[in-house]
Design brief:
Distance between the termini: 57 Å
Order of helices and strands: HHHHHHHHHH
Strand content: under 5%
Shape: globular
Radius of gyration: 21 Å
Number of strands: 0
Length: 254
């Protein structure tokens, strides 16, 4: 009797889960895009760390509420506190580089350069996660990196942007990629809300230290770079018309 070709059975449950996952990814990217646009809108008036502090307070309030459905505060216990700290510091550095670049470069260009992050994640998954990446994906990664170099060469230097400003979103992408690798490692033992809380608390600590050391704007005038001025700008009480922007940014905390 001839052997029949085996075919993968259709699984309606997993197929539906995949579609839901795709929808959430799209919604997440939409939220991130709106978040970045609103932060760029505020970048000429408020300090980066003031924006980060405000959105972290709002985001932490929301996430703590979600945590109650994932086991409560007991879910915050972890066996790998140092890895969680490293993950949080990486996303702090990624945000610093990305949003500082927003103060200097056009939003579209910053995002074009930052989208090297998935390429970095693909490459880093080989040595750090032991995953197999085939030749076709490696070829796609190579083409992607060539595209980034093209953006830097044609739209970057061609427009006269300084090198450090072009490096900021690429460095942010590297930090973000390493953070995602750690997310994969730690995701099996920590809930999503708990991992988000670790990051938000780190943001609050770092931004509070920034307010303590240069929140009065004492160093802003010493630099001409808009990226550095965005970081060192004095903290101000927000204008009433800007409160809704801070609220949306906090709700879209990534």
């Amino acid at each position: 009797m001839p052997r029949l070709c085996t075919m993968t059975a259709f699984n309606p449950t997993s197929d539906r889960a995949a579609r839901i996952g795709i929808v959430f990814v799209i919604l997440g990217m939409l939220a991130i895009s709106i978040n970045d646009l609103l932060i760029k809108t505020l970048s000429d008036r408020y300090s980066l760390y003031q924006i980060v502090f405000t959105r972290s307070v709002i985001g932490l309030t929301i996430t703590v509420s979600i945590l109650q459905f994932e086991g409560g505060f007991a879910a915050l216990k972890t066996r790998r506190p140092l890895l969680h700290l490293l993950r949080a510091l990486l996303i702090v550095c990624a945000n610093l580089g990305f949003f500082a670049a927003l103060a200097v470069l056009p939003l579209a260009m910053v995002n074009a350069l930052f989208f090297v992050a998935p390429l970095m994640i693909t490459l880093l998954s080989i040595p750090l996660l032991g995953e197999h990446v085939g030749p076709y994906r490696l070829g796609a990664v190579f083409v992607g990196f060539c595209g980034v170099l093209l953006v830097i060469g044609v739209n970057g230097f061609g427009e006269g942007w300084p090198l450090f400003a072009l490096v900021l979103p690429v460095g942010a992408a590297l930090c973000y990629a390493l953070m995602q690798i750690l997310t994969r490692k730690l995701g099996g033992e920590s809930t999503a809300a708990a991992m988000a809380i670790y990051i938000q608390v780190t943001f609050l600590i770092v931004s509070s230290l920034a307010w303590l050391f240069f929140g009065d704007g004492r160093y802003e005038e010493a630099f001409e770079s808009e990226a550095l001025r965005f970081v060192l700008r004095p903290w101000l009480w927000p204008n009433p018309e800007d409160w809704w922007i801070f609220a949306v940014i906090g709700g879209f905390l990534r």
